Amino acid sequence: PALPLTVHERDEWGDPAADPHEDEYLRSWAPLVNMPAQIGQCPHIFLTARLGDERVPPLDAIAWAREVRRRGEATVLVQVEGGGHFDS
């Protein structure tokens, strides 16, 4: 939330800092913002992230995993590797 969007992201998503409607829209589908109060019983989670991923930075995955772990609702294993968004 504290990191500004880059110029090409503003072209695609709008500028949430300048338009409250765009901010509300982006937050409406943000996984960390919209995590239910209780996830409930869920399986163990294996989450991967890529250091070079410019579309989904590894810190997003780590923040989500931290919140699930904080709630104690699942065991989460996070693996961060090199590579980018389209690497397999």
Structure notes:
The protein is an alpha+beta fold and 88 residues long. It has three helices and two strands, in the order ααβαβ. It has a two-stranded parallel sheet with strand order 1-2. Helix 3 links the parallel strand 1 and strand 2. The protein is flat. The protein starts with 6 loop residues before the first helix and ends in a 7-residue tail after the last strand. The model has no long low-confidence stretch (mean pLDDT 79).
Number of helices: 3
Along the chain, the helix and strand elements come as HHEHE
Cross-sheet strand order for the largest sheet: 1-2
Report helical residue fraction. 25-40%
Mean residue pLDDT: 79
Strand content: 5-15%
Low-confidence region ranges: none
Straight-line N-to-C gap: 28 Å
Q: Can you tell me the overall shape?
A: flat
Radius of gyration: 15 Å
Structural class: alpha+beta
Number of strands: 2
Sheet having the most strands:
2 strands, parallel
